[in-house]
Amino acid sequence: MSGRAAGAALLVALALPPAPAAAGTTVPLPPLPQAPRASADGARLDAAAAARFAALALACVGKEYPNKIAHVLQSDADALPPRRLTPAFFGCYDWHSSVHGHWLLARLARAFPDAPFVAPARAALAKSLTPANITAEAAYLAGKGRETFERPYGLAWLLTLARELREWDDPQARTWSAALAPLETAAAKQLAGWLPKLTHPIRVGEHDQTAFALGLVLDWSRAKQDAVMTALAVERARTYYLPDRTCPLAYEPSGQDFLSPCLAEADLMRRILHPGAFADWLTGLLPDLPRDGSAGWLEPGVVTDPTDGKLAHLDGLNLSRAWMLEGIASGLPSEDPRVPALRAAAERHRKDGLAAVTGAHYEGGHWLGTFATYLTSERGLTDR
Predict the structure, then answer these.
(1) Does residue 185 share a domain with residue 202?
(2) Of 170, 196, 347, 357, which sees the most CB atoms within 10 A?
(3) Do 148 and 217 sit in the same domain of this protein?
(4) Three-class secondary structure of residue 34 per DSSP
(5) Residue that finishes a domain, picked among 127, 160, 194
(6) Confidence of residue 275 (pLDDT cuts 50, 70, 90)
(7) Do 188 and 254 belong together in one domain?
(8) What is each CA distance from 121 to 103, 105, 139, 222, in whole angstroms?
(9) Domain co-membership, 275 together with 363
(10) Alpha helices (H) in the chain, listed in sequence order
């Protein structure tokens, strides 16, 4: 065995946590890095940008059509309009976009409590997050043939919405959090039942990707202090990605990606490896990362037709790459020579990505505001 292989094997042996315990039991958590704090210049999100992003979500959370549903019918009785099938999250073209549109409103209302958009944002949240609506949502999720519904992307965003409401010190938010709890529990249960059976990671640049979803799930479970789900997410991440070497970043992006397979797994692994171990692992995963501070080593995606919903995914890719690059940089030792190039590429992608968040076309307007908010509010980098 080569020295590199031996080192990798030792890292695997030292890193793997105990197998997850049965639901309802307590297990010792594996040691994890502390969640990074926000950058010194704050959230990098001002009230004007927040209002613009909030307007995009407010324009779609109650907009039922056009609508794309992934709906399994068992009989004619299941042929119902979206508002009847999923009464809380029927807007914004599809279920997951509606869920993270609600997250956007909660995140920005929490960050800018005195902004003019907060009153309509609260009204939209109050209209959707009622006990009756959430009971219907949970029943829909439990329906026959829906085991794969919104798995993992939409379910992970549902947990992110639940986290946001739980962390918001506000009487209304506590009411919404309590209402959402049954669906939160159901979403976590769906993921917990699926992940141990998933023998290989899903390495695509769209909704089915496991790396991005696991990052959201891990952030949720750590914030909730759910020891069982944290242990499961960490074990799955290590099993899927710790042995990876030489990820083909040069093959990215595919033509309709909105997530980077290579960067997403690195952004996930920085959450569970301490800086020194993460630096060593990243050398194996992306051996050609520059050490000269340059930004041109990773070209932003270019959208040739923003009215094509799939082609417009590349605008979202630029935004998600930006936060993933920032996340990777935050997980390395501060003196690591790759940090300047990671941050330079992140800033380049940030600039291009944010320029595309205009709302001019519904194909991007119904979801790009969420990605812009996740990036600029540093949700993946801060525990606040």
Answers:
(1) no
(2) 357
(3) no
(4) coil
(5) 194
(6) very high
(7) no
(8) 10, 6, 26, 27
(9) yes
(10) 3-15, 47-58, 82-85, 95-111, 118-128, 131-141, 153-167, 171-194, 210-224, 227-241, 261-269, 275-285, 313-331, 339-355, 362-365, 368-376
Task: Single out the residue of 234, 140, 228, 241 nearest to residue 187, CA to CA.
Answer: 140
Six-digit token pair at 167? 């962390």
For residue 23, pLDDT over 50 is answered with no
**Does residue 286 sit in the same domain as residue 164?**
no
Amino acid identity of residue 273, one-letter, is L
Full DSSP string of 98-127: HHHHHHHHHHHHHH-TTSTTHHHHHHHHHH
List pLDDT tens digits, range 31-83.
556 544 444 333 479 999 999 999 999 999 999 999 999 999 999 999 999 99
| Structure tokens, 178 | 């309590």
Which residues span the domain enclosing 51?
Answer: 43-68+81-194
Query: Which three-class secondary structure state does DSSP give residue 33?
Result: coil
**2: exposed, middle or buried (Cβ count in 10 Å: 0-12, 13-18, 19+):** exposed
Predicted pLDDT at 39: 40
- The answer for 378, left when phi > 0, alpha when psi is -120 to 50, beta otherwise, is left
Distance, in Å, from the CA atom of 135 to the CA atom of 86, rounded to the nearest integer, reads: 10
Q: Do 336 and 226 share a structural domain?
A: yes
Amino acid at 79: A
Residue for token digits 């990820």? 247
Stated pTM of the model:
0.91
The residue type at 88: A
| pLDDT tens per residue across span 338-376 | 999 999 999 999 999 999 999 999 999 999 999 999 999
What is the pLDDT, as a whole number, of residue 38? 40
Domain stops at, among 158, 179, 194? 194
* Residues 147 and 246 reside in one and the same domain: no
* 221 and 190 inside one domain: no
Can you tell me which residue has the tokens 């009971």?
Answer: 135
